[in-house]
TrEMBL record:
GO aspect biological process, one term: response to stress
Residue ranges constituting the HTH marR-type domain according to the UniProt record: 39-91
Keywords: DNA-binding
Domain of life the protein comes from: Bacteria
One protein family per Pfam: MarR_2
UniProt entry tagged with the keyword Protein transport: no
Name assigned to this protein: DNA-binding transcriptional regulator, MarR family
Any one GO molecular-function label of the UniProt entry: DNA binding
Length: 152
């Protein structure tokens, strides 16, 4: 557990992380209730970092902040469920891309709707949170925007 500050509050970073994980867990539970395979939190992150036309495995690992082996394990599990596939990269001779299958695209569309419902449940607080959080400065270790990576 994170230590509270001098006023008995948890650090903001801890609160944000916990809130993000809670929203993700609620979304994964709703998706499972709709008949989708149960995904781990780590597996759900793969969907957040895949480009529409596919992402090289090494780039996916970098975006996830994990090793190539760990990313490969996540992709392998998702491939066994039929949600992603690994295909040849037409732009690189020996390259590969991780991309969504038709089923993975359907799950993603359903997830967008689930997250919209969760956000709607927050009412005006959602707009306030979005306004406050989009103004945060990007740190050196922050995830680069897709246009900066040349992959999106």
């Amino acid at each position: 557990m994170q230590r509270a500050d001098g006023r008995g509050r948890l650090p903001l970073a801890h609160v944000l992380l916990t809130a993000g994980r809670s929203l993700d867990a609620l979304a994964r539970e709703e998706l499972a209730a709709r008949g989708w395979p149960r995904l781990s939190g780590a597996q759900s992150l793969v969907f957040a970092y895949l480009d529409a036309d596919g992402t090289p495995p090494a780039e996916l690992a970098r975006r996830l902040g994990t090793t190539r082996q760990a990313a490969q394990d996540l992709v392998g599990g998702l491939a066994r469920t039929g949600l992603v596939e690994v295909v040849a990269d037409p732009a690189r001779r020996a390259g590969r891309l991780v991309r969504l299958t038709a089923s993975g695209r359907d799950l993603t569309a359903d997830a967008v709707a689930v997250f919209a419902d969760l956000e709607a449940g927050l009412g005006d607080r959602a707009a306030d949170l979005r306004r406050l959080l989009t103004g945060l400065p990007e740190g050196a270790a922050a995830e680069p925007r897709r246009e900066e990576t040349g992959t999106g």
